[in-house]
């Protein structure tokens, strides 16, 4: 016999909408609470198990045994939810760190090689795939900077030398600078055998370790998204200082004006709606912000290159008048 579904009233629809809206909020609250007290779920499961066992041994009334079993089942579900969430989250929240504690943040994330690779390339890869992941950025640098065989090149925020390992054979010297000692340690292992490379640890948001007019190319890739805006500006000024006349700068960032960039931003906005934003969470931007920095720093021939999801802004330090 065919049956006809009851019509959905406005009241039914409102209840469904409220239910759908309520679950993410409850889930976020539970996740936030367990992130603050990660030991609590396991402790409740243990206590519930002990209470259930005691109720069975003591042959308590059925109601008490039922309540103890329900408490064990509920706490086990919450513990499983937390364990699954913890496994799928790529990095720890590091909520005790401020955004501008760059060294502490990235040292915390990259103590192990797997964490360093994940931070650099977005997910774990074997060495062959990891090296292949650099090819697009290297092509952009060769085309847009452009990097030439006789150039002395500086990468700021070099990480594990994902890009530098592939770019070094294309230039005279490649210098990788990073504020994270752990990142530089992993980079040193990957660069073994290359004669024209060096690594330098930065100790502040500047390039004071380098003299004026030391390089032909300075570039920032997959790095500015993790910085405070005023620190981006600071690095633009420092890049101008350490570049020689006619030296080139290359800066990329996830472009919030692109469809792909906006999609990433919107997903993060939902994911972190009720959560504390971690200090390494990307801050997207657009061509205008980076162009203003380069103009104010004194660069000429500034161009924006839209290569979704990135925007790349390049400029040249002009000859002195």
Could you characterize the architecture of this molecule?
The protein has 321 residues and is α/β, with parallel strands linked by helices. The protein folds into two domains: 10-88; 102-316, Vaccinia Virus protein VP39 (Rossmann fold, 3-Layer(aba) Sandwich), CATH 3.40.50. The protein contains twelve helices and seven strands. It has helices at 10-36, 40-57, 62-88, 102-109, 113-121, 127-132, 135-144, 164-167, 181-190, 229-242, 259-271, 287-297, and strands spanning 152-156, 173-178, 197-201, 215-220, 243-254, 300-307, 310-316. The longest helix is centred in the first third of the chain and has 27 residues, at 10-36. The protein is elongated. The termini are far apart. 30% of the residues are buried. Mean pLDDT is 84; it is low at 1-25 and 85-89.
User: Number of domains in the coordinates?
Assistant: 2
- Beta-strand residue percentage: 15-25%
The CATH topology annotation of the largest domain reads as Rossmann fold
Based on Cα principal axes, name the global outline: elongated
Number of helices: 12
The second-level CATH architecture of the largest domain is 3-Layer(aba) Sandwich
- Rg over CA atoms, rounded to whole Å, is 26 Å
Q: Can you write the helix and strand succession as a string?
A: HHHHHHHEHEHEEHEHHEE
How far apart are the first and last residues' alpha carbons, in Å?
91 Å
- Overall CATH class of the largest domain: Alpha Beta
List low-pLDDT spans: 1-25, 85-89
- Tell me the quaternary state: single chain
Please identify the structural class as seen in this structure: alpha/beta
């Amino acid at each position: 016999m065919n049956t006809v579904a009851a019509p959905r009233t406005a009241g039914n629809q409102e209840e469904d909408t409220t239910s759908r809206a309520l679950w993410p909020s409850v889930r976020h609250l539970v996740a936030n609470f367990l992130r603050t007290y990660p030991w609590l779920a396991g402790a409740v499961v243990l206590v519930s198990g002990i209470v259930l066992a005691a109720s069975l041994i003591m042959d308590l009334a059925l109601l008490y045994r039922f309540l103890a079993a329900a408490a064990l089942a509920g706490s086990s579900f919450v513990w499983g939810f937390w364990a699954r969430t913890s496994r799928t989250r790529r990095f720890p929240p590091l909520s005790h760190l401020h955004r501008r504690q760059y060294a502490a943040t990235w040292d915390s994330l990259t103590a192990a090689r797997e964490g360093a690779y994940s931070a650099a390339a977005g997910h774990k890869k074997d060495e062959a795939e990891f090296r292949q992941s650099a090819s697009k950025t290297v092509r952009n640098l060769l085309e847009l900077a452009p990097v030439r065989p006789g150039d002395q090149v500086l990468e700021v925020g070099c990480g594990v030398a994902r890009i530098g390992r592939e770019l070094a054979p294309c230039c005279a010297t490649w210098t990788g600078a990073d504020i994270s000692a752990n990142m530089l340690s992993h980079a040193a292992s990957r660069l073994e055998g290359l004669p024209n490379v060096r690594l330098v640890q930065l100790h502040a948001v500047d390039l004071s370790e380098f003299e004026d007019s030391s390089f032909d190319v300075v570039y920032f890739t997959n790095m500015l998204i993790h910085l405070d805006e005023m620190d981006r500006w600071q690095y633009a000024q420092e890049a101008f200082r350490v570049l020689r006349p006619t030296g080139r700068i290359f800066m990329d960032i996830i472009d919030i004006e692109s469809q792909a960039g906006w999609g990433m931003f919107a997903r993060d906005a939902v994911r972190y709606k009720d959560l504390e934003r971690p200090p390494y969470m990307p801050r997207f931007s657009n061509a205008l912000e980076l162009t203003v920095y380069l103009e104010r720093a004194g660069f000429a021939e500034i161009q924006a290159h839209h290569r979704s999801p990135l925007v790349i802004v390049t400029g040249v330090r002009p000859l002195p008048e």
